[in-house]
Every structure is written in C-alpha cells, then in structure tokens.
Amino acid sequence: MSDSQRIHITDVSPRDGLQNQAVHLSTEAKLQLIALLAEAGVQSVEATSFVSPKAVPQMADAGELVPRIAARWPQLRTSVLVPNLKGLERAHAAGAQEIAVVLSATETMNRKNINMGLEQALDVSEQTLAAAQALGLRTRAYVAVAFDCPFEGETPLAEVLRLAARMHAAGAGEVVVADTIGSASPGMVKERFAALRGVVPVDRLAVHLHDTRGMGAANAWAALEAGVRRFDASVGGIGGCPFAPGAAGNLATEDLVLLAERSGFATGLSLDGLLSAVDFAQAQLQRPLGGRSIAWLQRQRDKRREAEAMTA
Amino acid sequence: MSDSQRIHITDVSPRDGLQNQAVHLSTEAKLQLIALLAEAGVQSVEATSFVSPKAVPQMADAGELVPRIAARWPQLRTSVLVPNLKGLERAHAAGAQEIAVVLSATETMNRKNINMGLEQALDVSEQTLAAAQALGLRTRAYVAVAFDCPFEGETPLAEVLRLAARMHAAGAGEVVVADTIGSASPGMVKERFAALRGVVPVDRLAVHLHDTRGMGAANAWAALEAGVRRFDASVGGIGGCPFAPGAAGNLATEDLVLLAERSGFATGLSLDGLLSAVDFAQAQLQRPLGGRSIAWLQRQRDKRREAEAMTA
Predict the structure, then answer these.
(1) What is the pLDDT of residues A128-148, one digit of tens each?
(2) Active centre residues of A (catalytic)
(3) Which domain of life is it from (chains A, B) (predicted)?
(4) By C-alpha distance, which of A235, A220, A282 is closest to A10?
(5) Mean pLDDT of chain A
(6) How far is B176 from B207, CA to CA, in rounded Å?
(7) Is B220 on the interface with A (CB under 8 A)?
(8) Which residues of chain B have a CB within 8 Å of the CB of A255?
(9) B interface mutation test: which of A189, A213, A251 has the most B CBs within 10 A?
(10) pLDDT grade, residue B3 (50/70/90)?
(11) Is a pLDDT exceeding 80 seen at residue B2?
(12) d(Cα B203, Cα B184) in Å, to the nearest integer?
C-alpha cells in the first residue's frame, strides 16, 4: 500500500454532528461515542467547539470534555473549533493540542454566522491561527460555503482560492474546504480542487462534505480522484437538522470507508466498529441514523451474526 | 454544449423496476408511467420483457403493451428484453423495434438464471442478436454480473472483456455493462471501463447500476469520467426487492440527472417531471420510492409551490 492509497479521516460527529441536535448528549455519552470511534480505528476526531454556551448549548461542556479525552486517549488526534482568540484561550486552558478556525467564503454568511464582515473574519482567523501556532498547537482552517452560499448563491471560485491561499499562508496545517450546505456536484469538486491544488499543497488540503442531495459519496470520489486524501466525515451521517424533514447530515464515515476500501484505498477503520457507534448514537439521539450504505452494512452484519450463532 | 457533454439515459423502470414488485401494475398503469416519463423528457425506455409469464407474471402483458406504446409515442425509443429466439419472435410480432439480450458473465449465474451454461448462453445471445439484426431491429446486449456474482464472487475482468467484445462483434448496438447486485465501487468502475474501452468503442458502451450500497451516484460519476455517456436508470430507483428490507433498486433516474446536470452535462430530462413519475409509481406500488436526492428534490418543489401559491 503506497502512501497515496492511504486516506485520513477526521470524524466530526462529536462536534458538527451533535451541535444541532435536539437531544443534547451528556459528557459521559460523548465520551462513550468517542470510545466507540476510537475502537473502530478512528485516529482523528473533531471533539467540540469553544463557542458561546448560550449560542450552542450542546457544546457547553467543552472545557470538561477536552482534558478527559486527552487523559483517556493520549494518541487520539483531537481538534476543537475556536471562533476567535478568546475561544483559543479557553481551548488552550483545557489542554487542547489542535484547533480549527472557520472562515466563510462570502460576506453574508460571515455576517449571519458570526456578525462580522468577510475581511474582519479573515483577520480574526489569521490572528487566531498565529496565536495557536505560537502556543505550539496544530491547526486546521475551514473555508466554509466553498461551493454555494445559502444567501449569495454560487461562491466565486476566485474567492475560495484567495481565502484558501491566505489560510495556508497563515500556517494552517490543513485547509479544509467545506461544502457546508451539501450542494456540490462531483463536477464542481473536480474543478475546484484542481484549482485549489495550485494554491495549497494537496497534502495540506482536506474536504468536508454534506450529503443533502445524495451526492456525498460521489463528491468524495471526485475529491479522491483530484488527489485529496484528507476527509471529514461523521459516523452515521449525524449532522442534519432534525427539524428539516429529510435534511441529510455530513457525509457518513461508514459510506466513505466502504467506498474508499472497495476502491483500493486504506482507511484503517473498521466498518463493524463504525456500526456499533451508529447503534449507540441513534439510541442516544432517539432517531434513525446512518449513511446511504447503512441498510446493506447492517444486513451483512445480521447475516454474519446468524452464521456465527449457527456454528456456535 | 458539445456532444461529449450530452448523456443518454434509458429509463428501465417499466421492466427492471417492475419485474420484481409485489404489486403488479396493469397495462393501463404502465402506460401512465411511461406517459409521465415521456413528459419528463425521457427518450428511451426499457418497456418490458418477452419471458415466460409463469416466471415473471409482471411482464405477461408484453404483447399488448408494446404496440400501444408504439402507437402513442412513435418517437420513443423502446427496448424490450428477449431471452432467446422464441422471445424475439414474440417481440417482433408485437412490433418491437429494439431488443436486448442478457448474458451473465459467470457460469453459475447463467445456470441459476436461465438454466444454461455460459458458453450455451453466449451462443443463444449471439444467435438472437444476429436474428434481430436480420429483422432490422436495433439491439442492446447486457453483460450482467460484470463486477461481482452472488455465487462466484468477483467476476474476472478478462471474462467481462471477452464477453463484451463478443457482444460487440455480434453487432450489438450497445453493450450494457451491468452491476447487477450493486456491489461495484467507483474504483472498480474506473478500472473496468478503462479496459472495456479497449474492446468496445466507448460510444457503444452503456452502464447499468444498482444502488444497493449507496454508491450508485459515485459509480455513475466514475463512469462519466471514464467517458461513458449511456446510462440505464430507473425513476424513483424502483427495482429493489420489496421483501428484502433496505434492498435498494436501480440507480435512480433523478439522482443521475441531478448529478449530471449539476456537473455540466445535459440529459434533456426534467427533474420536476421525474418527481411526478415517482409520485405515480409510489401510489401504484404502495411503498415509498425515490433515490438518494428525493427528499431534497421534494423540498425544493414544495418551496416553489408555496412561493407560487403566495404570488397567485
């Protein structure tokens, strides 16, 4: 297996997955979810965010969660979202080793999301990245709404390239290009990553996909073909807003692993392990979860269990 | 729009979609489904099969259906499956202008499916293709289980290439490479079509995908990238066995259209028109249908209708 056949998955279910859920998971339950992910072979998680507990009460336990993860899984790469220097301070105080900043690629999205204009948001992201590096932390920088913006329509590619280049120049360890509303097509992924490779070395590029239109797996394949080897995904596809009927969440980790492994890539993740995490998450969130492959994966597991029971 | 950006979709829902359904559609209902497909812009359908009515009672009205389609939609390209010379005779008597033969790529699949060995099935396919051409009919030839066989595991690529080349040499207008059990990955699609292009001109190659593992759209993208422009698909993804929980059917026509159009390809099909066909089919079959994009497509339609109602 050459290095080019190895892909790196950050499971973002504890953060992007849980941040919009009606049911709020306890710190204990989050640790159980992360335990199941670690057992499944996940080596990198996005664990939480240091944002206002008023705005995102689901993440209010960030300061408690981070040191408990570090104590229990010292080898697990654990990233946390920070909106600004104040968030960085809290994350650092909690012992975080890696932080992520989020920069939206349009004026309106930044105003709606963080009540700042784009240029101010860019400043804040650069300052936060610089301060984090000064503290010796690893960093990721999201470029959000990098395909379409819910307010402005298609995001100009030139703007995405400009911001990705700025995040790279600011020292971001990974520049994570995000299809925040799940509107990308594989043709767009192909085109945009071909251009992005010109401004950020491909081994520093990651892709963050949502599966709103059922194209998450196709977009992941287009990214793989473009040379991208770093992916965000969320076990069970957790992340859709439960109040929008049919709204799909993130690209499901199990879908990505199935697609990649069947296509000759190595992920290091166990599909059975991921199914156990899906079981747990849906029991906690009290709604059915799972990506597009879940029915097939569960049938395979059932068949194997039946066969084992017969020979037992 | 260059020719290379134009894709050709054969909607197989009236045949591959309906042949395994618990609810049997009347001839009138099938004509209504085809009417909706034609209204949606579909220019090619696989309408029925001339097989034993005992084995496949859902297709028992083939002899009545074909002339009624021809009378009502003289421009609609209408293909029918024929298992052998006897089926061809019946299809020809009914006025069929295009037939398809099905050759499975493994010994066991042929034995289970048509109680013949592979070499005998190859003979029958070649004879049927020759006879159909002598009658002036257009022809398609399926190479089934071209990725994996449910009985023999992965189908050797060399065997798929041999059979595809034989079907091409026998004059098949299209060689339809079929992922019959929906086990293909985009990596396999890429590899196999790169090789298939060496034995069949790419404009004579078509791909027939199932969505069992949620990789139908990703596989379609891999086929597009390999230069394939001819696709089978089934509106609403009809085609799964209703007795196998979670068993997915064919690649949904609406998923393929959404992916292709958003990626810069032209299909000539209307998503709204396809949604009407899904509505009709699920009312008839009394179960929810729709591909991976259906929830999003329906939400868009609902929003548009609400907006129209407000301005009305």
Answers:
(1) 999 999 999 999 999 999 999
(2) 241
(3) Bacteria
(4) A235
(5) 95
(6) 5
(7) yes
(8) 214-215
(9) A213
(10) confident
(11) no
(12) 21
Nearest chain B residue (CA) to A290:
B214
Q: Cα–Cα distance between A248 and B292 in angstroms, integer?
A: 10
Contact A164, A196 (CB under 8 A): yes
Taking residue B312's Cβ as centre, other Cβ atoms within 10 Å add up to 5
Of A211, A221, A258, nearest to B213 by CB-CB distance is A258
Of all residues in chain A, the one with the smallest CA distance to B189 is A263
Q: Which residues of A255-285 are buried (b: 16+ CB within 10 A; e: fewer)?
A: bbbbbbbbbebebebebebbbbbbbbbbebb
ipTM over 0.90 threshold: yes
User: Which H helix or E strand runs over B102?
Assistant: strand B98-104
Residues of B in contact with A211 (CB under 8 A): 292
- Distance (Å, rounded) from C-alpha A106 to C-alpha B62? 56
Domains of chain B (ranges; CATH) run: 3-311 (3.20.20.70)
B220 and A217 within 8 Å at the Cβ level: the answer is no
- In a structure prediction context, what are the per-residue pLDDT tens digits for chain A, which is 312 residues long? 577 899 999 999 999 889 888 899 999 999 999 999 999 999 999 999 999 999 899 999 999 999 999 999 999 999 999 999 999 999 999 999 999 999 999 999 999 989 999 999 999 999 999 999 999 999 999 999 999 999 999 999 999 999 999 999 999 999 999 999 999 999 999 999 999 999 999 999 999 999 999 999 999 999 999 999 999 999 999 986 544 444 469 999 999 999 999 999 999 999 999 999 999 999 999 999 999 999 999 999 999 999 999 887
Residue among A188, A177, A81 at smallest CA distance from A128? A81
The answer to whether A218 contacts B213, with C-beta atoms less than 8 Å apart, is: no
Which of A218, A294, A298 shows the shortest C-beta gap to B218? Answer: A218
Longest Cα pair distance anywhere in chain B, in angstroms? 65
B192 in contact with A, Cβ within 8 Å: no
Residue with tokens 């009378």: B71
How high is the pLDDT of residue A242? 47
Tell me how many residue pairs between chain A and chain B have CB atoms under 8 A apart. Answer: 108
- The rounded distance, in Å, linking the Cα atoms of B220 and B224 is 6
Q: What is the pLDDT, as a whole number, of residue A243?
A: 45
pLDDT at position B246 over 70: no
Which residues of chain A does B294 touch, with a Cβ-Cβ cutoff of 8 Å?
214, 246
Distance from CA of A152 to the nearest CA of B (A): 17
How many other C-beta atoms are found inside a 10 Å radius of the C-beta of residue A119? Answer: 10
> Measured between CB atoms, does B288 come within 8 Å of chain A?
no
How distant is the Cα of A51 from the closest Cα of chain B, in angstroms?
A: 30
* Calculated CA dihedral for residues B183, B187, B190, B192, nearest 10 degrees: -60
Q: Is B149 a catalytic residue?
A: no
Question: Does the beta carbon of A155 lie under 8 angstroms from any beta carbon of chain B?
Answer: no
B186: closest chain A residue by CA: A263
Take residue A297 and report the two structure tokens written for it: 């994966």
Give me the residue from B246, B259, B263 closest to A296, CB to CB: B246
